[in-house]
Amino acid sequence: MTTYFNEMFDGKSVRDPYARLGDWMATMPADRRLEKQAEAEALFRRIGITFAVYGEGGDPDRLIPFDMFPRVFTNHEWGKLERGIKQRARALNAFLVDVYGRAEIVRAGRIPARLVFQNEAYERAVAGFVPPKGVYSHIVGIDIVRTGPTDFFVLEDNCRTPSGVSYMLESREMIMRMFPELFRENRIEPVDRYPEALRRTLASVAPAKCDRDPTVVILTPGHFNSAYYEHSFLADLMGVELVEGADLFVEGGFVWMRTTEGPKRVDVIYRRLDDAFIDPLCFRPDSMLGVPGLMDVYRSGGVTICSAPGAGVADDKAIYTYVPEMVRFYLGEEPIIPNVPTWKCGNADDLGHVLSNLKDLVVKEVHGSGGYGMLVGPKSTKAQIEEFRERIKADPANYIAQPTLALSTTPTFVEEGIAPRHVDLRPYCLVGERIELVPGGLTRVALREGSLVVNSSQGGGVKDTWVLAE
Amino acid sequence: MLSRTADNLYWIARYMERAETAARLLEVGARIALLPSAQGYRNDWDSLLRASGNAAGYAAKYGAPAEKAIESWLFFDRDNPNSVASCITAARENGRIVRTALTGQVWDALNTAFQELRQLEARRASCELSRLTDWTMKQAAMVRGSIDATLLRNDGFNFLNIGYYLERGDSTARLMDVKYYVLLPQLEYVGSGLDNDQWSMLLRALGAHRAFHWAYGGEITAAKIAHFLILNPQSPRALITCVAGMANHLGRLAKYYGRETPAQPAVQDLLKMIETATVETIFDEGLHEFLTRFVGEAARLGAVIHDSYLSGDM
Lengths: 470, 314
Description:
Number of domains of chain A: 2
Largest sheet of chain A: 5 strands, mixed
Strand content of chain B: under 5%
Mean pLDDT of chain B: 87
Largest sheet of chain B: none
Number of strands of chain B: 0
Distance between the termini of chain A: 37 Å
Number of helices of chain A: 15
Largest interface: A-B, 23 and 28 residues
Strand order of the largest sheet of chain A: 3-22-21-18-17
Order of helices and strands of chain B: HHHHHHHHHHHHHHHH
Radius of gyration of chain B: 20 Å
Low-confidence stretches of chain A: 52-60
Oligomer: heterodimer
Strand content of chain A: 15-25%
Mean pLDDT of chain A: 90
Helix content of chain B: over 70%
Structural class of chain A: alpha+beta
């Protein structure tokens, strides 16, 4: 039987970061906990925080379950994570600038040309264009899992518009409100400077033609979008306008927004909209969400779009396996946080290995997300495995496989009291003139006993994530 | 501010005011139900539906006016865009879109109204009519109060108030128009019991029954009622109060933005139309004609405000 690393308990003793939570947990009466839980849920519903993690789908009005037991990192543990995350964010951006430029990494034979140039997310429309400060992905969400005291792995990169950061901020607010005593007993690094840091990051990549304090906006697909709450939450905290495509228009080489005082120029657009929808003249002509002519202004340096169109080519699951190679190629460093070992089914050798070990592996679609279209070998029936085998054989290049990771657990409030549940971590790395990481992130927890799938659409919840000050 | 944001704010106010109007109509309905059922009162149900602004929609769905069906139509029915449920849902949705332009308290008031509405809907069979109307007035007051108490006095505040006053003026004029014939000095009705019931029903529909007596005392006459609901600036729902309110907030917008638009002269024109009127000139013109003219002019003003501030096409 697999043993899982428990982030709080090492045998009978409590690990350092959780030292002060042991008593808190032991002395909390069950009725107080239930009372607090109900209070937290009522508060979330009242502020109207409904939300879905990028690409997960599901009912947009559903609350994601919130677990009140914090997940804790020591300053030392976080230090290593931070270095690893920033390193990866730098490499991913270097890769993007490269593949839309001279593509040295392809010429050097370190990544197959096919994977880059025939990738659906590769945007020919921006080839040869270098965005301000050479940044394509301004908010890099890197999903990390842990299997031991010092064993961390990157599970996935999100270079487009990773969501969930509002939950990082709201979870913290909630815990501070519910259990203020915890913040006196523990010295916890604050996360509430994230919106300010995001604004600074966005302003730092203002376009060449901007000769004044840049006007930043968030572009949302609209209030029917499942992440609308997050869009409006961030706009509010940053003090910038939340616009829809119809609020913007292009004229005289610039982008303008329609205001009650007449047109106002926009310099930086943080879009929460896929590439395909941002400009019907350049991409999908049936998009009602975008701004006609936006891409022309962008390419002539009249506006900056964050993340830059085309950034998605770096976070594809097929490209993922090459990220350690990018770190070596562009930075001349060894990856601080390794990848999960991955077999590419498009590769004949790998395919053989995968097909004969399906019961032990996790198999994912290359372009899938959200825990759909995947096989978790050890948790599947023979019939499910056989069915998946046929799917892989039919289109091997569409699948990758990874060992079933012994995801770490943290104590979680469940019906019977407290029990270990599996978690992952999504920190949000900001890349502009500088590279910044707020100490914390979104911890997702698989609330079902034994489940390794943390996605909210599959019964996952969220936790507050603490980094202890030194 | 974004033109769309201003538009959303304006509609939050209009929908909340409209929800209140629907609730007042329901209250009137409740009183009708308590009166002895004579031939004349069928008429009241009809006028109630006409005042709600969507009598045809009701007829298509339910046919002849009936108490339960009308209650349902005015409060719960989502097919009726002017029902309390439709209006509160729309106000909250507009609020959700412009969360960033609202304070936490205003949003909380809008969202609480919506969440409680969903609970009411879940057990609608057991809801007493009087509780539904009280509940609606309370929600409207909570939203209005949190706007007044917590919102910055900026352009957004002005757009909200313009929405409130425009909707309120429109609703007063329509309610009066539905009942205008009651106010016509027809000899055979004056002093009859029916007449008084009809008048007090109109005042109740405008939540002005007690206020009227405070302001005028004595006998209820057509001239007094017309004066109270059109020309008396003390009356919170009088046309003059509503237009002056719009003039005030449009004036503040012009100052705030440092520029006038066609909306400012347009509201002054409308204000002048009312300020120069007297009960006599109104009755000479014909109450129905006067009210029809007002509703038309108010709609035109609404369109000018839309073009000047809310459409973004300047």
